[in-house]
TrEMBL record, chain A:
Organism: Yoonia vestfoldensis SKA53
MF (Gene Ontology): ATP binding; ATP hydrolysis activity
Name of protein: Peptide ABC transporter, ATP-binding protein
InterPro entries: AAA+_ATPase, ABC_Ni/Peptide_Import, ABC_transporter-like_ATP-bd, ABC_transporter-like_CS, Oligopep_ABC_C, P-loop_NTPase
PANTHER family: ATPASE AAA-TYPE CORE DOMAIN-CONTAINING PROTEIN, OLIGOPEPTIDE TRANSPORT ATP-BINDING PROTEIN APPD
Membrane topology category: Peripheral membrane protein
Higher taxonomy: Bacteria, Pseudomonadati, Pseudomonadota, Alphaproteobacteria, Rhodobacterales
One GO BP: peptide transport
Domain (ABC transporter): residue spans on this chain: 11-261, 282-522
Pfam families cross-referenced by the UniProt entry: ABC_tran, oligo_HPY
Family per record: Belongs to the ABC transporter superfamily.
Cell location: Cell inner membrane
Keyword Nucleotide-binding attached: yes
One cellular-component annotation, GO: plasma membrane
From TrEMBL, chain B:
Membrane spanning residue stretches: 12-33, 114-138, 159-177, 197-215, 250-276, 296-321
Family assignment from sequence similarity: Belongs to the binding-protein-dependent transport system permease family.
Pfam family, one: BPD_transp_1
PANTHER family noted in UniProt: DIPEPTIDE TRANSPORT SYSTEM PERMEASE PROTEIN DPPB-RELATED, PEPTIDE ABC TRANSPORTER PERMEASE PROTEIN
Membrane topology, record value: Multi-pass membrane protein
Family annotation (InterPro entries): BPD_transp_1_N, MetI-like, MetI-like_sf
Designated name of the protein: Peptide ABC transporter, permease protein
GO cellular component: plasma membrane
Organism: Yoonia vestfoldensis SKA53
Principal location listed in the UniProt entry: membrane
Keyword annotations: Cell membrane, Membrane, Transmembrane, Transmembrane helix, Transport
Length: 553, 330
């Protein structure tokens, strides 16, 4: 007779209500959500930023951040009520039976201690294993997670280890006591695609190997499709729907879920090829650039034609933003030149005329920090209007209103608002309006959608596409997200380590054969197919993905 | 490590340069003091001839630049010249002229001051750090508030007041400690310590607040960091979170505040010395200014400046060493 499977859930959250303090009042963050997790199961928690994913994940550990309180409902872990349990009881569970993997491993490892010392802390303090045994186990886990140099890497400090490796070391640390439950809070969001894939496969392996239950929090649907058995969708603190992964992907019930799924389908048709002999609007010609003595750009050349979008892709540190700095004149190149309409631009922005400056504008990744928090929306947009076009008084106001209309924000409502009174997407729109105010012909968009949720990001991309058609703008689109490239680019430039490794029209880019690095980048982008990661691993083998493959090139 | 060594050597060179600049400032400032030694010692009987004679004897008639360089040259070799007051006294009695050297006059006083500073620091620094850590641990509790009120009131009260309160409670009402700290050269260490304890306690009250509050603030500042949250989520006790995870990362600002307070203990204790009749360098300094005994004033100033520079330098270097990024470069 076989033993009946243990059906008591590991985590049982019922009608949980969580408030966050804002000024002097408590506002609800989570409005009555239920969550059940069986042993060995992986639950994916998805939603936009502000949906309360992390708050719910932490609540499953019986933990709330400062300024957050649980106002109702219950959280049970293996029959223990975490909301009424004493601090000592909870401390005994945390780290030992419930572990946490944070979004930014670089910030979540203590900079003052070596990795291995942080790894053994939980087992030693919880009295599970001695220092020595636990350190040996750590090395074994590092090896399982395919960290390079497992014997030695633990003796380094966090700043001496790369982001992807730290994220795996943190997963190893979470595993140090062989917990029953791990909360993964966006563990790969901050990583490059090629690094992400390695971390994903490492996490998936180790979770399966030890039959650990997990709550996997992310905003990336394709990632959650690889990792989770079941998916729960959250929207503004409420559950939208829950289903097992395949059902959720193939047959979502709710409109909101469907709209999330549909985002990735936005793709504007590529424009016809440029006629031979046309003078490009911007030409980057054999540019070398350096920060101090360290050379970061090597012979970079590409053209951007009028009315076209060139996407510059590559991982962090590949020289994308540096190229933008050369074009804007913030970083004068040490060799080569920038041509605008066929005429060379002075290398240093201080030597450029006002009209030359006006033609090239920038939109930044972090709209939060790119807008002066003490200036109203109207002032922010009026500044370039007055500076470049010399408009004042009523004419200035009219121009600002027109610009606000162009970015689909009502001037009457938004003119006097401060940036702190805007959502992330609205801030980015203000950034766009500020760039448009100069009436440029060329705009550099530096990762403009990477800090935004998918629905909002799609709105921004559609807006940029519309503005391009109306005003025949040219864009240089810096991004590491290939979905964005697919959506908006006409041509693609792939960069790696300061070199251009491949360039050409979008259609060619997404069709083989291409440069090995481009191939690696493309193949590393998670797809919505839940079998994608398994298939890829089967097809290529663990040694031919991620950083390991990059190093081989 | 080569990296750190270069930084240390750079700082040392810079420190020496600062000291040189300070020596110019001291020399000029002291020489700008109104009145001079000859006039103040001769008092009402000063005739132009006798004033000129004394000035000539002491070299005060030389141009300032020449006097600066002869002073600096001497100071570099550890010779701070002769005390004016001692020199003239020696002339009257005809005794050995070596007794008038500034170095000889300052040395025992400086040793006493260093002893007092060391005893005070040995009490105050651990006391302040422990209080700071506990205040951070029980932040916003009654204990935290009481600690803050206590240290803030002690730093806000005049030093002589604190001294008299301590004398009242520890010497008069409960005669545990002596109220007068008349220490001399060949005293046993334990006696010396006993006599020094009351001024040291007074100084402890004066300097604790600054160090304690910086410790508390530096730790609390880090408590919202992701790695502190991580430590909590690993189930670590609040004390361990603060001592093991927050404190090592909060050391740099704490070290700097400790250094400033140590420098204060060496240079700013005149009032406490006067109250307890403690024969330290502060009293000597004030007396020398009163008599326009320029060589002694200059030497004291230079020692004070050197103490500040040296302690800040040490603090800089220790802050650098407390940063693993600099200790273990990539």
């Amino acid at each position: 007779m076989t033993q009946a499977p243990d059906t008591t859930p590991l985590v049982k959250i019922r009608d949980i209500r969580i408030d966050g303090r804002s000024d002097e009042t408590w506002l609800p963050i989570i409005k009555g959500v239920n969550l059940t997790l069986q042993r060995g199961q992986v639950l994916g928690l998805i939603g936009e930023s502000g949906a309360g994913k992390s708050t719910l994940g932490l609540a499953a550990m019986g933990y709330t951040r400062d300024g957050v309180r649980i106002s109702g409902g219950s959280v049970e872990f293996d029959g223990i009520d975490l909301l009424t349990a004493s601090a000592a009881v909870k401390r005994d569970l945390l780290g030992k039976r419930i572990a946490y993997v944070a979004q930014s491993a670089a910030a979540s490892f203590n900079p003052a201690h070596r990795l291995i010392d942080q790894h053994v802390e939980a087992p030693v303090q919880h009295g599970i294993a001695g220092r020595k045994d636990s350190a040996e186990d750590g090395i074994a886990l590092y090896r399982k997670l395919r960290l390079p140099n497992p014997e030695e890497i633990g003796f380094r400090y966090p700043h001496q280890v790369s982001g992807g490796q730290l994220q795996r070391a943190m997963t190893a640390m979470a595993m140090s006591c062989r917990p029953d439950l791990i909360i993964f809070d966006e563990p790969t969001t901050a990583l490059d695609v090629t690094t992400q894939i390695e971390v994903l496969s490492a996490i998936r392996d180790i979770v399966a190997q030890y039959n650990t239950a997990a709550i996997y929090i992310t905003h990336d649907l394709a990632v959650v499709a690889q990792m989770a058995d079941r998916i729960k969708v959250l929207l503004r603190g409420e559950e939208v729907e829950t289903a097992d992964t395949r059902t959720m992907l193939t047959a979502p019930v709710q409109d909101y879920t469907k709209s999330l799924w549909a985002v990735r389908s936005f793709e504007r048709p590529a424009k016809p090829a440029v006629q031979k002999g046309t003078v490009p609007l911007v030409t980057v010609q054999n540019v070398d650039a350096a920060y101090g003595k360290e050379k970061v750009l090597h012979d970079v050349s590409f053209d951007i034609h009028a009315g076209r979008t060139v996407a510059v892709v590559g991982e962090s540190g590949s020289g994308k933003s540096t190229t933008a700095r050369c074009i804007t004149g913030l970083l004068p190149p040490i060799a080569g030149q920038i041509l605008f309409d066929g005429a060379p631009l002075p290398p240093d922005y201080r030597k450029r005329s006002k009209d030359q400056l006006r033609q090239i504008q920038m939109i930044y990744q972090m709209a939060d920090t790119a807008l002066n928090p003490r200036m109203s929306v109207g002032q922010i947009i009026a500044r370039p209007v007055q500076f470049y076009l010399g408009l004042t008084g009523k004419a200035k106001r009219q121009r600002v209103d027109a610009l606000l209309n162009q970015i689909e924000l009502d001037p009457a409502e938004y003119y006097n608002r401060l940036p702190s009174e805007l959502s992330g997407g609205q801030k980015q729109r203000i950034g766009i309006a500020r760039a448009l105010a100069a009436e440029p012909r060329f705009i550099i968009c530096d990762e403009v959608t990477s800090a935004l949720d998918q629905l909002v990001a799609e709105g921004i991309l559609r807006l940029l596409a519309r503005l391009q058609d109306e005003l025949s703008l040219s864009y240089m689109f810096i991004t590491h997200d290939l979905a964005t490239v697919r959506a908006i680019a006409d041509e693609v430039v792939v960069m790696k380590d300061g070199h251009v490794v491949e360039q050409g029209p979008k259609a060619e880019m997404f069709r083989p054969p291409h440069h090995a690095y481009t191939d690696l980048l493309l193949s590393s982008v998670p797809e919505m197919d839940p079998d994608w990661l398994s298939n890829l691993l089967a097809e290529r083998g663990v040694d031919n993905i991620g950083d390991a493959a990059v190093n081989k090139l | 490590m080569g990296n750190v060594l270069t930084i240390i050597l750079q700082r040392l060179a810079l420190g020496f340069l600062t000291l040189l600049v300070v020596s110019v400032v001291i020399f000029v400032a002291v020489n700008l003091l109104p009145g001079d030694f000859a006039q103040s010692i001769l008092g009402q009987g000063a005739t132009p001839e006798s004033v000129a004679a004394i000035r000539r004897d002491l070299g005060l008639d030389q141009p300032m630049v020449a006097r600066y360089f002869s002073w600096l040259g001497g100071a570099l070799q550890g010779d701070f010249g002769s005390s004016f007051a001692q020199a003239s006294f020696a002339n009257f009695t005809g005794s050995d002229s070596g007794a008038g050297s500034v170095a000889q006059q300052i040395a025992p006083r400086f040793a006493n001051t260093m002893f007092l500073a060391a005893v005070s620091a040995a009490i105050a620094v651990p006391f302040a750090l422990v209080l700071g850590v506990l205040a951070a641990l029980y932040r916003n509790s009654i204990f935290d508030r009481a600690t803050n009120i206590f240290t803030l009131s002690s730093i806000s009260s005049p030093e002589f007041f604190l001294a008299y309160v301590l004398i009242l409670f520890l010497a008069v009402l409960n005669p545990i400690l002596p109220s007068v700290s008349n220490i001399f050269a060949d005293m046993a260490f334990s006696d010396r310590l006993e006599k020094t304890l009351l001024p040291a306690l007074t100084l402890t009250l004066v300097v604790t607040a600054h160090m304690m509050r910086m410790t508390r603030a530096a730790i609390i500042n880090l408590l919202s960091s992701p790695y502190i949250e991580m430590a909590r989520l690993k189930g670590m006790s609040p004390l361990r979170v603060i001592v093991h995870h927050a404190l090592p990362n909060a050391l740099a600002p704490i070290i700097n505040v400790v250094a400033i307070n140590l420098a204060y203990l060496i240079t700013g204790v005149v009032v406490v010395e006067v109250v307890f009749v403690y024969p330290g360098i502060g009293q000597l300094f004030v007396d020398s200014v009163k008599f326009r005994d320029i060589p002694v004033v200059q030497a004291c100033c230079l020692i004070f400046a050197a103490a500040y520079i040296l302690l800040n330098l040490t603090a800089d270097i220790m802050s650098i060493l407390s940063n693993p990024r600099l200790r273990h470069p990539k």
